[in-house]
Amino acid sequence: MLQYVVIAMLAVGAAASADWGQIAHVFLEPQLIRSAFADGLLSALVKTLEYTAGAFLIGLVAGTVLALMRLSPIGPYRWFAMAYIEFFRGLPAVIVFIAFSLLPLAFGGLIIPFDPYGVVWLALGIVAAAYMAETIRAGIQAVPRGQVEAARSLGMPAGLAMRKIVLPQAFRIILPPLTNELVLLVKDSSLVFIIGVSATGNELTGFGRELANTQSNLTPLVTAGLCYLIITLPLGFLARRLESSSVKAR
């Protein structure tokens, strides 16, 4: 009980000593919030969603392939999948972004299609695939093995049993963690500014950062951060609902 009283007293003391007028001016200036919307904040929000959606699709497809390779009885497939997963899970996403942005310099004439979308989708998707692969593998292993054996006893080929029986059930099981992966991708899309996209290609962080530098005020960056919450909070709520529904179904 004492610790709560101490925390409450510290919070009250901090609130009483704060210069709320200055805080509002630096972080929540109404005129600059309106200016952010007029200058293209909603367009940056759409760019964030586009970057996230493409990367999630690439990560999901590649992650499924890696998960199947990780469970394969063929040694080289397993070794490749394990090496890929460990490498990209241990590597900061920012380094992958920088590497992909420098590929055209390293390989003369190389053109990544749909620039800047192609670079962003590949960089984010490659990293996301490593995390999704482990999630999907866990979902596949959670499907009762007896169902696969029953399908095989009826003459169903292994590949068809995986597509028709195992994967649909596995994806139902892993919907909550996949939704969490989507939330992480939304936040990781903030790394796009590193590759130096044009103003029209800016996502929320890049947009807020440039406008904050121009206005010498942090309000545009705070506004961009609130837009991230508008995206991620409903996704987090959805993940919790899916997880709760999954527990009840069991």
Structural class: mainly alpha
Query: What portion of the residues fall into strands of 2 or more residues?
Result: under 5%
Main beta-sheet strand count, sense and barrel state = none
Task: Tell me the CATH architecture.
Answer: Orthogonal Bundle
Work out the radius of gyration: 23 Å
Protein name: Amino acid ABC transporter permease
Transmembrane segments: 51-69, 90-112, 118-136, 221-240
Keywords: Amino-acid transport, Cell membrane, Membrane, Transmembrane, Transmembrane helix, Transport
Subcellular location: Cell membrane
Quick overview:
With 250 residues, the protein is mainly alpha-helical.
Describe it for me?
The chain starts with a helix and ends with a helix. It has a single domain, classed as Orthogonal Bundle (MetI-like fold). The protein is mostly helical and 250 residues long. Helices cover 80% and strands 0% of the residues. The model has no long low-confidence stretch (mean pLDDT 84). It contains twelve helices and no strands. The longest helix has 31 residues, at 219-249. The chain has helices spanning 2-17, 20-27, 30-38, 41-70, 75-90, 93-106, 117-142, 145-153, 158-173, 175-188, 204-215, 219-249. It comes from Streptomyces sporangiiformans. One of its GO terms (molecular function) is transmembrane transporter activity. Belongs to the binding-protein-dependent transport system permease family. Keywords: Amino-acid transport, Cell membrane, Membrane, Transmembrane, Transmembrane helix, Transport. Residues 45-239 form the ABC transmembrane type-1 domain.
